[in-house]
Design a protein that fits this description.
Layout lengths: L1 H4 L4 H12 L6 E6 L2 E10 L4 H4 L12 E9 L8 H15 L4 E4 L11 H4 L4 H5 L4 E10 L2 E9 L2
Parallel strand pairs: 3-4
Antiparallel strand pairs: 1-2, 2-3, 4-6, 5-6
Length: about 160
């Protein structure tokens, strides 16, 4: 929710998210494993993320039609199964089905270092590149102390 509207209190955030879930195209995708919700990926038109529209660290590149992947959450007990790949696949399918023509992500480049959950919520460049995204440019933003990149994938 921080990308959408960080000024809301918790009841306001819950109400806002419920409203997004009741509308199309929705605020993202869920991943089920073992009969439970195992993960979440936030993907929506870039224009719906207030923090991205006003960002000083994430540049704007011909993004009038861009959709953005801004975060991943994989629940404890489901980690280390490669589910972020499944979440990103689902996010791409959701965006394509909703008419998206290009998707952006803002992952980190961890180098050889291990990354913690704080930095990992945006994904890694390697994750995105393995799903057909290409590096556009390094941003001035960081997550978990690691540099973030703007990556894009055109949808045919």
């Amino acid at each position: 929710m921080s990308y959408r509207n960080s000024s809301l209190d918790m009841p306001g955030r819950i109400a806002h998210m419920r409203g997004l879930c009741d509308s199309e195209p929705g605020p993202g995708v869920l991943l089920f494993a073992d009969g439970q919700v195992a993960g979440w990926c936030s993907i929506a038109p870039k224009a719906t993320y207030r923090a991205l529209v006003n960002s000083r660290t994430i540049p704007h590149i011909d993004d009038g039609e861009a959709w953005s992947v801004v975060c991943f959450v994989v629940r404890t007990g489901f980690r280390r199964r490669g589910l972020m790949h499944d979440l990103l696949d689902g996010a791409v399918k959701h965006a394509r089905a909703s008419g998206a023509i290009v998707i952006e992500g803002y992952p980190i480049e961890p180098g050889v270092d291990r990354i913690d959950q704080i930095g990992a919520y945006v994904g890694t460049v390697r994750l995105f590149e393995s799903h057909g995204f290409e590096r556009v440019l390094q941003t001035t933003g960081h997550s978990g102390g690691k540099p973030r990149w703007l990556v894009r994938r055109a949808l045919a």
